[in-house]
Amino acid sequence: MNLQWQRIETSEIETINKLSQELTVPPILANIFFQRGIETLEDAKDYFRAGLEDLYDPFLMLGMEAAVDRVLKALKYKEKILIYGDYDVDGITSTSMLVLIFRKLGHDVEYYIPNRLNDGYGLSCSGIDQAKSQGIDLIITVDCGITAVNEVQYAREAGIDVIISDHHQTANELPNALAILDPKRPNCPYPFKELAGVGVAFKLMQGVIQKCGMDPEFIYPYLDFVAIGSSADIVPLMDENRILTRAGLEQLNRTENLGLKSLLRNTNLLGKTLGTGQIIFIMAPRINAVGRMGDAMRAVKMLTSSSAKIAQQISDELEQSNRERRSIDEQTFNEAVEMIESNFNPEKDSFFVLSSENWHQGVIGIVASRLVERYYRPTVMISTDNGIGKGSARSIHGFNIYDALESCTDLMLAFGGHKYAAGLSINSNQIETLRNRLNGYASEYLTDEMLVPSLTISGEIRLSDIDDKFLRVLKMMAPFGPQNSRPVFSSKGIKIVGTPTIVGNNHLRFRASQDNVAIDAIGFNLGDLIHRLHGNTDDVEIAYYIEENEWQGRISTQLRIRDIR
Fold first, then answer.
1. pLDDT tens for residues 470-489?
2. pTM for the complete prediction?
3. What domains, with CATH codes, occur in the chain?
4. Which of 115, 169, 538, 543 is most buried per CB count within 10 Å?
């Protein structure tokens, strides 16, 4: 797929030059800062130096006072508390974090995560029945609950109080819970709206600690969970998320959590410097896999275990679940590609809605993302069983898939999610109508420009510009993620040293040279571009990230290739 290169331009030359001088950085870096809202020295200080002391007061969040008071009452009277989570990484880390913090407060709590295949998403009446049988007095939801109107009423009738801690988009009607914590709820004055579920759960515990007059550092050892959940949920890494994730990564790199250490050991990451990339591509899939394939409770047990043996045993199970998930994932992907090539025109159709009785519900979200990457079309994948379809939707840049699904509310049993990812349930006999309606919606709101994938280039540099200071400033910009993306640079007139090779699973490896400076380069899944490095190898332009490669104890600079022309 050809990418359209979009170069960042600016007319604010004076401001950028001034910023460059004040920060003593090259103008190209000053321009990158300017594009991210850093226009003054004070802005730069806020961006680079903001720390945990700069976190917002948790009591700015609507509902926090009532939620904290109820938690403190439960602690005082030793009531039974249930943490009710979601089965993805955000929900698993939220649940594990609260379990461990309550334990540290001297209060054991129960936890429950629904089975994806048997229970479905979110707070359920069956889960509440189980809570009632355990004598639970208070349910705290994490990463779910904001649309559970009927379920919360069911809990109230069962004599159980509910605190909802969530970050998803609200529906027209809010549940009648004792307290609702969600920065996205109407009229919530909290200044930052983009916390992950684990971030909202952390703010709840921050409020509890604050009201008790305890040192805020009491809960800082659990920030590694916030970093993992926030990174895996692909929330914008700006503002408070940036502070929490950066501090969480520092904690993760020295974690003493037995479950995390087992996971890092199994993935050969123990002792290595970890960033958001290692979380998203290595750790998160393994934590996710156990929930995708069935019982996410095992992941919480691993992350909260005080036994190294048990933690390692469950980590090994996660590794096996992930291998099983990858096998099913590949089979499902191949079936979906064949379906698209047979029944759709990838060049003309702008929205794919696919369904099958053979697909595992646990992998359709991953496969939908892979299809978007391959065809660059909004995609809904639906697994059907006994007349009911469970679906996952993924979108492309600029197209709001939540709004698209909302326009079809009358066709679905339920739906929820974000701008670029959502889930739904639907009667199987309505899938064809949904396909037609979504394509009609796309014809109105999906523009031709949206259907061309673009690559934003921060600027052109020479390889000789990549010196120690340049690298140091780039590292200070981390953690990278949405709205604080890793800068992509381009370089022209690149010579290829030696022979390019394809390694691993279609990864392109070569050595790039310019101005007598040679740097190793790798393009993951870009083996199909090897022909662009043949022939006139003095006339190559590359677009790339600059990163550190750690191999056998040695750290070297590496170019992560995004495109070649």
1. 999 999 999 999 899 999 99
2. 0.88
3. 4-49+454-564 (2.40.50.460), 53-254 (3.90.1640.30), 344-445 (3.10.310.30)
4. 543
